[in-house]
Amino acid sequence: MRHIKLVLAYDGTSYFGWERQKGFPSVQQAVEQAVESLTGQRVPVVASGRTDAGVHALGQVAHLHCETRHDPATIVRALNAILPRDIRVCSAADVPESFHATYDARGKLYRYVLHDGPVLDPMLRLYVWHCPWRLDDAAMHRAARCLMGTHDFSSFETSGAPRQTSVRTISHLTAQRAGPGHLWSRQPLHGVDAAADLVYIEIAADGFLYNMVRAISGTLLNVGRRFWPEECVPEILAARDRRRAGPTAPAHGLFLVSVQYDSAAA
Amino acid sequence: MRHIKLVLAYDGTSYFGWERQKGFPSVQQAVEQAVESLTGQRVPVVASGRTDAGVHALGQVAHLHCETRHDPATIVRALNAILPRDIRVCSAADVPESFHATYDARGKLYRYVLHDGPVLDPMLRLYVWHCPWRLDDAAMHRAARCLMGTHDFSSFETSGAPRQTSVRTISHLTAQRAGPGHLWSRQPLHGVDAAADLVYIEIAADGFLYNMVRAISGTLLNVGRRFWPEECVPEILAARDRRRAGPTAPAHGLFLVSVQYDSAAA
User: Which residue of A has its CA nearest to B179?
Assistant: First the structure.
């Protein structure tokens, strides 16, 4: 039996999210079907976490257990030959049997991208949220800083999702302007371009509540458009009340950039 | 009567090209419908030239004559509110009655983008041609140089299109590696990145024969993958025989970047 870790990239536009759902196309279903075509085995492919309908991934991580004699490079090529072109396997690796993509994840990096120019390039329409107000990215960045560290993020959680605690630790949170060259990068943004029309919100944390990145992005948007003063963000955090925060930003501007594991795990 | 010049960007994926065709969606039809919705007038919108099915544009230029009291900025906003999101009006301007988007065009810049990394980012699948051979971009660039200047480009013309002469003048022709930040730029590429997986072919000429950029791109691809020596390109040019050149590269990697006019015309 082989134990395999996959790094996956996908355009979420055509899928009802990662998780298999009867009657709706999902990324998980597509990957599991490709694995079955390659190996003849119906095995679950388990991701680091769900992504919602329309959310994209640059470095989703998943694991599976199957029998195959193909080396990892061949598995990458073969799965990519079978998969639809909006889902790609970036890499494959053998890992210890104990590796679990969900439970061993130590942190994730998400990116939310806003465009505040007058006209959105048509090729970006599925990947950024077009906001027709010139955004004060410096105010957004300052407001974001108070969310760094360990807090109860109930104010930024869509209710209904099961979880034991709403305390999470944000280790990295920036709102910065940069050009389109960074859109598909697996690295955190470095190299700001003050003249660009794109504002990147990047958040790394040990875990995320349901819709947390999108609620933070909608809140920072309200600061950036000067609808709210930046001082309101600590008050929203302290309120632990979802009604105080900004709107849930639409799914299509959100990317799961990468998932971090202990080097011992994989 | 107003005489208006539009600069348009579009994602060609869902269209059978610029030109109106009965029973098939076209960019021209969509723009003419939007103008009719805004002004109540059915008027032709005339472009600098056709783009083929699947070809994209960053700076297509078109003109129209209509009655409207809206200022240009309002025309931009109003048309973008009506148009599908894969077609955008970038700008509008009043021009002299004599301005003709086709006949006054002095030159165009096209870009063809190849990706030669092992795995294509899923978000780029509709905008670049994925070639699974590592390309020798320096050889492609050297081979391209011999096409500069005034020549009979019959070897790079798909037959069947009406034209008086197959002589054209190429003023700019480069094949260079760069990152994805340049994909949507209206400027010629500057700033090469030797580590990038994208090879940009950029060609400016006073006019283009049918499929000329795509035939040149397919020829340079054969040089880049070392299937042909770079010295073959002058021979192909001299042969004036389409069968000697490389394959017509697929439409989805091609962008009409910009159209040049005499400043007196518009």
Answer: A181
